[in-house]
Amino acid sequence: MEAIIKTLSEIQDISDGIIVGYANVYNVKDSDGDISLPGSFAKTVTERKNKIKIFKNHQPGLVGVPTELDIADTYGLKMVAQMAMETEAGRNAWLETKFLKENGFESGLSIGGWIVKRGTKNKSEVAEYKLKEISVLTTDDPANEYSLIDTVKAVKDLSEPNQEEFWRLIEKAYNERFSDNILKSLEQFLTLGQEPDASTPVNEPPKLILDFYKLFN
Length: 217
Fold this sequence. Notes:
Strand content: 25-35%
Radius of gyration: 19 Å
Mean pLDDT: 76
Helix content: 25-40%
C-alpha cells in the first residue's frame, strides 16, 4: 500500500461545532497526478467508519470524529464532522477553521491513509483507499501549529499592510473563544500595545504574538 496525504477538498458549512464538506472529490487530478474514482472510499468507510478520526493538519491528536461519511455522493466523499468542543484542541481547530472561512481565506479538508488499489488500465486512477484520518487544514504547513500567523501573512500578501487591517484581524481573533493561553497572549499585546517579553520560551503561546508583531515591524 502507498501511504498518502491528499488535499483536494472543500468545506461547505461550519456551525455549532460541526464541519461539513468533501474530504476528497472524484474524477479530478490532484497535485500528485492521482484521480479518485467514485466508490474508492466505499470499502474503507464500510469497514473502518468507527476507526477514522479527525485531526488538525495531519498532526496526531483527536480534534473530532466523522458522524457521517456519504459514499453514495457522486461528487466526492462528503463528511459531517463533530468537533470535540469539550477539549481545547477540538475547540481551537473548529474556531480557527471558522475564522479562516469567515474572512475569505482558504481552509479545507485532507485525507490521510493509504492507496490500496489503482485502476487496471490507468494507474493514475485510485480505485480503493484505506483511510486513517481526515484533517481540517488551517495552515499550508502541517508542522506549523501557529496557524493564525498564516492568516496575517495572507493579508500581507494580498494588500499593503496597515494598522487598520492588523487591528481588525487581531481583535477578531481575540473575540473568538480561543484557548486561555492564546487569549492571555493576545490580551497582553492588545492592552500594552508593545512586543511581549522576548524572554518567554519560544514554545509558549506568546511566540504567536511575537511573530504577529514581527510581521508588522
